Amino acid sequence: MPRSQFTLDELRTVLREAAGTDEGVDLDGDIIDVSFDALGYESLALLETASRIERDHGISLDEEALVAAKTPRELIDLVNAHLAAA
Amino acid sequence: MTTATWVTGLAVAAPTGLTVEEYWAATLAGRSAIGPVTRFDASSYPARLAGEITGFAAEEHLPSRLLPQTDRMTQLALAGSDWAFANAGVDPAQLPEFDIGVITASHSGGFEFGQNELRALWSKGGRYVSAYQSFAWFYAVNSGQISIRHGLRGPSSVVVSDQAGGLDAVAQARRQIRKGTPMVISGAVDASLCPWGWVAQLTSGRLSTRDDPGRAYLPFDDDAAGHVPGEGGALLVLESAEHARTRGAGRVYGEIAGYAATTDPRRGSGREPTLRNAIEGALADAGVEPADIGAVFADAAAVPELDRVEAEAIAKVFGPSAVPVTAPKTMTGRLYSGAAPLDLAAAFLALRDGVIPPTINIRPSRRYDLDLVTGAPRAAPLRCVLVVARGHGGLNSAMVVRAVDRPAPPNR
Amino acid sequence: MSGGHVRRPVITGVGVTAPGGVGVKEFWKLLTDGRTATRRISFFDPSPFRSQVAAEADLDAELSGLTPQETRRMDRAAQFAVVTAREAVADSGLDFAGLPPHRTGVTVGSAVGATMGLDQEYRTVSDGGRLELVDHTYAVPHLYNYMVPSSFATEVAWAVGAEGPATVVSTGCTSGLDAIGYAADLIREGSADVVVAGATDAPISPITLACFDAIKATTPRNDDPEHASRPFDATRNGFVLGEGAAMFVLEDLDGARARGATIYAEVAGFATRSNAFHMTGLRPDGREMAEAIRVALDAARLAPEDIDYINAHGSGTKQNDRHETAAFKRSLGEHAYRTPVSSIKSMIGHSLGAIGSIEVAASILAMTHDVVPPTANLHHPDPECDLDYVPLTAREQRVDAVLSVGSGFGGFQSAIVLADPERSGA
Hints:
The complex is a heterotrimer.
Chain A (H helix, E strand, L loop, with lengths): L7 H12 L16 H4 L3 H15 L5 H6 L3 H14 L1
Chain B lengths: L4 E9 L6 H10 L4 E3 L12 E3 L6 H4 L10 H17 L11 E6 L5 H13 L9 H4 L4 H10 L6 E4 L4 H14 L4 E8 L4 H8 L29 E9 H7 L6 E10 L11 H12 L6 E5 L6 H15 L5 E3 L12 H15 L1 E2 L14 E2 L5 E2 L4 E8 L3 E8 L10
Parallel strand pairs in B: 4-5, 4-6, 9-10, 9-14, 10-12
Antiparallel strand pairs in B: 1-7, 1-8, 2-3, 6-7, 8-15, 11-13, 14-15
Helix pairs in contact in B: 3-6, 10-11
Chain C lengths: L8 E10 L2 E2 L1 H10 L4 E3 L12 E3 L12 H6 L2 H17 L11 E6 L5 H11 L17 H5 L2 H11 L5 E4 L5 H15 L4 E8 L4 H9 L26 E2 L1 E9 H6 L6 E10 L12 H14 L8 E3 L6 H15 L2 H4 L2 E2 L2 H4 L6 H15 L1 E2 L22 E2 L4 E8 L3 E8 L7
Parallel strand pairs in C: 4-8, 5-6, 5-7, 11-12, 11-15
Antiparallel strand pairs in C: 1-2, 1-9, 1-10, 3-4, 7-9, 10-16, 13-14, 15-16
Helix pairs in contact in C: 3-6, 7-14, 10-11
């Protein structure tokens, strides 16, 4: 059975729950290649976000790769790579 | 000569009001906020009443980025810090970065946040514990978050002295002002109204198990049977007199004039309790005589033995029924480390308006030689007020606040 | 108090309960030998956790003189505080029974209070997390004392017969420095003549492991526990949790001299500042810690050149070690490069609120013995950390004045200056 893909919409939901939204940021906008930094998410917010994704999908993200993921696209690709390998 | 420490801003987060004036109007009117616990189902517990804050929606006051990482008491404290600076007419960003500190008291940290993470840990496993747990529950969180929110880089601290802590924090803030920091925001906001907090509080043996809100928390009454817990507190902007004068502070509520703290010997040691020493120490520190004190805001434990000790200490220092005594916390319940800062706020408002708020619901016991202000507020020309706060294990703190006479502000 | 007399707080008694040995003697031997007390966690099965190493203290409550009643009602952190306070009191040679009780105060630092007790009790009253409405009938009678850690201060006050001001200072990982700064103020302002002060923490518990796992702050070097804490080393990858306490007797210099007390050091300067930046993060420039150091040196009336040794926070996280290295350079200038800096966390781990006081104990013992303790496990210098970190081996040298610093969650940055009132120009 093929694994479901992790999508930008899913990421938006997790980000909102895990870390809220910075004032002045439109999370529903075209954010796929905007850096998390510019979106107002620092390391703690991303750790909480990643932790929720890991729990929801039963995966364990590579720690160094997680730190290297600087945009929603990079994080989504990382999650999907893990899902495909799982 | 050490500088005087003035209070130039107040914020209140009380079950009876979320603004200073709303709280004060309710307090003078004797309006109680004690009622059945609504935040969780308390029906299976022996105590079922609380002083809850209603009408505080954190998302209306704070950015959504802060909500997942904060306990309710931190959300209240952060909003309170905004109100306190606004009340003082201060924009912290306009002061040099190391000129403002933040010193709060804590009772049990973000206990509800901790409860939820402990539950995640034990029901689902360590991977379900939040990345924010490392600080959201701990005792230092309110000082840290307030510092970040307002860019305060001055000396900051946190004290834990159970319910006496609110006064200890303000005293520590005064120390920093005396050492040269122009401004410190201080006080405490507490909230642990959750099942885990409730069960922990029950073990103190001091919670009232009555169901009638009018008969549950009755300090200095023959029917005293413990207290009702509440949530909230107050934050105060403390400022050196010179700094307040120089910036032309719009309001000066009064001065933190005297303070002392003591610790009781262990029960059964045969030694006397030490509350009297704390009161006398605070008066001496303020350089005032007992006759100068116009009112006492009592700790008001509503545990007969503790009421007796407090009543005797007050009677010994001031003489039998020689000073008006009140406990407006009968309207809010006991707010743990938030209680004493809220009493300080009430004391400053009493100084301002020349009126002592009442203690509600009680019929004063004849066993105590106290002049309790009951039923209605009492008009009185006040210059100095004493606030007493006590913590579990025998912690006693006492603070004298004093009115400040100011020349008419220059026209601006 | 006589007008004009300046009261100077000095340390005249010390007690330590640390991983690797209970008591000051064992503690100092471990440090100067450069041995490590970090190991795989033995208190419970750590295998579900990312980080499974810690520095555990081997406290035998009964041997340490606690009564069964004391052991039952006190969380482990309170036990540490009481046992260690008794050692400090005995060491001071001060007859506490002969002191006016209301002139003796207590200040106890603790970052996380009775975490261990709370963790265990939550598990019980929630039936292993199953009950949202936890069951009060299963609660231990002293649960309130776990909830509110000022119980640590009252326990110490009762143990030493103090009836003056008592409180707990809880500023995260700077608690152990801040508690001593607080106590020094009580002496200086005349609120107390003697203060029993220090700090304690006993955080090695599943909830603590889980919360530091979640932010990847603790090291995952589970295959080599003895060499897991690597401050300033290029291979460092997080701190190792520790536990313990250090307590001191503080009094006024004149009184101490009058009774012929052994004076370890004067608490010559202390300051704390906040970074107002992030609850867990540090800016790399170390500005606020540098400011705290500058103010503490001013208070001590010492110049950077007077500092003989820096006892670093040195937690072994990437960001911390870089941050404080910058802070030392910013505050001490060129002298930072000439001053030995070491982190005893390399040997005894990071006991959160307690460590600041334990590091003060190490600092005053360095002054007493004229020996600088080393930074263990430092084999691969990090180009970002380019000071003299005293790798591996203790160093004999004259130590008259020490700077010790701490950095805590919540943004607290503290600095304390300890100086020999006889030998230095203070």
